[in-house]
């Protein structure tokens, strides 16, 4: 029971609500939530009325009964704590009957949100929501602030002494002064009010006043300070929408350093991009710049601040693509290819239209030479596979001197440049021998053969002949070894005198013309050639089986009996007998005369120790 002072006499009443209740199932497995229609009844009882000039005092009891998954009864006015907890629900029921609680300070919560309603006209709108919620005043409400409704509306309608500053906020698109929740004193709250609209207006005259100028400067200084103290995510979400296009004349009257700071924290647009180029080059956001906004001189600007610009690889590639969509800019990009892209040279090489491959490569070589640094050659790996012509000895010398060759592709490219640039044969031969000594590449590397032939390198042509002779000899030895291993398997199978031998096959995707065969214990038995006619391999899940075709050909009753491991039987038979029919067909193609194959499955003990 709670003592309340109401604005009028009331009788006992009740309110009823129905809605769907949700409940998460619990148990061993996660179950989806289920729902049930809940019926809620709130009974309001008023006792011992006492009339005073301000209203009527009552002893109020509110009992809630809820029927859902279970029936629950709660006294909402059991004590002060429960009354405060359920005050919002009680106040909602009272509002419907125009009943007000006078001995508790309460507030209504409204949410205000300003946004641009029409981009063409600049019309903005303040929309209000949730103004039916009512709360008791507590420490959180007091800390956030309690407003008089009429004063707040005058503020938001720009009708009070803050109007000029609010017009300024709206002009630059900083809506944070209104995008908030406001607690309104219940004594002043109106039941109905409309959204607020503001038309775009020129505030240049307002900004000429000294007091207004000081307020705006203080605003920008505070925003700069806030920007400097915030993290990257907060900066992107809280500052980029501030737009100074409509107050550029005012911005130009600020001190130079403050202009740069303001440009740094505000939105980049086509209108203020020129201002950034003139007064604050380092504030240009290269990730946001559009292609139509670019100038050839922007490449120099980007290079000037290249080490300071925070730009990820995807954004850099997109920027390079924008630069290179103009022939004049493409030439400039190629001239500064290394400084712009470093080891990501394919951003440029894949988009060349005006410049040649030689222009691109030579630019990279020259820039690295001018830096005086030694660069790992694989940093420009993306340039290795293009066709080049008219490279010079100087190009070769620069690459040889300033690029560290550490792998076979870089070594091959160095040899390629040496041949294209017309180095002396002795120089090229010595280079190849040196790279071979360093275990970087072999003179017999097939990747060099086209270079030897295209540039008529006589020593290289001789190496090609030597390589082909070695390959022929190697292939001959491999054939001998293969024949020997195939004969080894054939002899082993014949020596067993069994129709079927249990084995394990080992496939190597590099050798498509044979399969390595091991015993079930892992011993090497040899290889089975793909064109073998006297042995036939069938594969199970755990074990494989080699059929001695020569012996099967001699069967007279036309039936082959196969004893197999029980885990392999299903695989050998196949779906609807498809695999066993294929085995039967294939054996008959190899010269057998079979009418049927019968499969007998065994466990491993019976298969390997009992079956004879």
User: What form results from the Cα inertia axes?
Assistant: flat
Which regions have little confidence, pLDDT < 50, spanning 5+ residues?
27-32
Distance between the termini: 95 Å
| Biggest sheet layout | 5 strands, antiparallel
Structure summary, number of beta strands: 19
β-sheet strand percentage: 15-25%
Average pLDDT level: 91
Computed Rg: 44 Å
Count of helical regions: 26
Task: Please give the share of residues in helix.
Answer: 40-55%
Structural class call reads alpha+beta
Question: What keywords describe this structure?
Answer:
19 strands; alpha+beta; 612 residues
Give the helices and strands, then pairings:
Elements lengths: L1 E5 L6 E11 L10 E19 L2 E13 L3 E5 L4 H6 L1 H10 L9 E13 L4 E14 L2 H6 L1 E2 L1 H8 L6 H10 L7 E6 L10 E3 L5 H4 L2 H20 L2 H7 L9 H4 L4 H10 L4 H10 L17 H8 L8 H12 L2 H9 L1 H5 L4 H4 L7 H15 L3 E2 L16 H10 E2 L3 H13 L4 H13 L11 H6 L3 H39 L3 E7 L7 E5 L5 E6 L5 E5 L4 E5 H4 L6 E7 H8 L4 H12 L6 E7 L1 H6 L3
Parallel strand pairs: 8-9, 11-12, 18-19
Antiparallel strand pairs: 1-4, 2-3, 3-4, 4-5, 6-7, 6-9, 7-10, 13-14, 13-17, 14-15, 16-17
């Amino acid at each position: 029971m709670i003592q309340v002072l109401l604005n009028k006499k009331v009788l006992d009443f009740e309110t009823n609500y129905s809605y769907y209740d949700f409940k998460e199932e619990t148990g061993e497995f996660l179950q989806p939530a289920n729902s049930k229609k809940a019926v809620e009844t709130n009974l309001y009882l008023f006792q011992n009325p006492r009339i005073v000039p301000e209203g009527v005092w009552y002893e109020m009891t509110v009992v809630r009964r809820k029927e859902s998954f279970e029936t629950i009864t709660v006294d909402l006015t059991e004590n002060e704590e429960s009354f405060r907890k359920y005050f919002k629900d009680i106040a909602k029921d009272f509002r419907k009957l125009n009943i007000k609680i006078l001995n508790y300070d309460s507030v209504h919560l409204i949410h205000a949100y300003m946004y641009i309603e029409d981009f063409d006209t600049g019309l903005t709108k303040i929309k209000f929501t949730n103004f039916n919620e009512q709360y008791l005043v507590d420490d959180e409400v007091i800390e956030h602030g309690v407003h008089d409704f009429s004063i707040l509306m005058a503020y938001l309608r720009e009708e009070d002494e803050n109007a000029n500053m609010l017009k300024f906020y709206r002009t630059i698109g900083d809506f944070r002064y209104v995008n908030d929740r406001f607690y309104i004193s219940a004594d002043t709250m109106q039941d109905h009010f409309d959204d607020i609209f503001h038309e775009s207006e020129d505030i240049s005259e307002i900004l000429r006043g000294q007091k207004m100028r000081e307020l705006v400067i203080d605003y920008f200084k505070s925003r700069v300070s806030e920007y400097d103290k915030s993290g990257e995510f907060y900066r992107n979400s809280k500052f980029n929408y501030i737009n100074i296009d409509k107050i550029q004349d005012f911005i130009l009257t600020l001190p130079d350093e403050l202009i740069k700071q303001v440009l740094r924290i505000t939105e980049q647009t086509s209108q203020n991009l020129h201002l950034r180029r003139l007064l604050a080059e380092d504030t240009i956001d290269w990730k946001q710049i559009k292609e139509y906004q670019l100038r050839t001189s922007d490449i120099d600007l980007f290079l000037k601040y290249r080490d300071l610009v925070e730009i990820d690889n995807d954004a850099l590639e997109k920027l390079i693509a924008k630069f290179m969509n103009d022939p004049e800019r493409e030439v400039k990009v190629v001239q500064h290819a290394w400084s712009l892209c470093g080891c990501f040279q394919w951003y440029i090489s894949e988009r060349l239209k005006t410049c040649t491959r030689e222009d691109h490569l030579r630019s990279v070589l020259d820039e690295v030479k001018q830096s005086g640094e030694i660069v790992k050659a694989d940093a420009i790996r993306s340039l290795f596979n293009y066709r080049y012509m008219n490279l010079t000895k100087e190009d070769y010398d620069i690459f040889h001197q300033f690029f560290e060759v550490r792998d076979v592709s870089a070594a091959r490219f160095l040899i390629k440049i040496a041949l294209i640039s017309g180095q002396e044969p002795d120089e090229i031969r010595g280079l190849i021998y040196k790279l071979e000594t360093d275990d970087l590449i072999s003179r017999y590397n097939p990747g060099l053969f086209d270079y030897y032939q295209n540039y008529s390198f006589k020593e290289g042509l001789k190496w090609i002949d030597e390589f082909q002779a070695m390959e022929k000899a190697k292939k001959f030895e491999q054939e001998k070894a293969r024949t020997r291993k195939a004969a080894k398997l054939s002899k082993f199978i014949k020596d067993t005198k069994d129709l079927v031998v249990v084995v394990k096959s080992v496939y190597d995707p590099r050798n498509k013309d044979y399969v390595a065969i091991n015993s079930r214990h892992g011993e090497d038995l040899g290889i089975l050639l793909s064109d073998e006619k006297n042995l036939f391999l069938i594969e199970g899940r755990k074990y494989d089986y080699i059929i001695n075709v020569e012996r099967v050909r001699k069967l007279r009753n036309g039936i082959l009996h196969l004893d197999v491991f029980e885990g392999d039987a299903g695989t050998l038979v196949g779906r609807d007998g498809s695999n066993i029919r294929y085995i039967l067909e294939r054996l008959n193609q190899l010269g057998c005369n079979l009418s049927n194959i019968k499969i007998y499955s065994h466990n491993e003990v019976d298969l390997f120790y009992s079956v004879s």
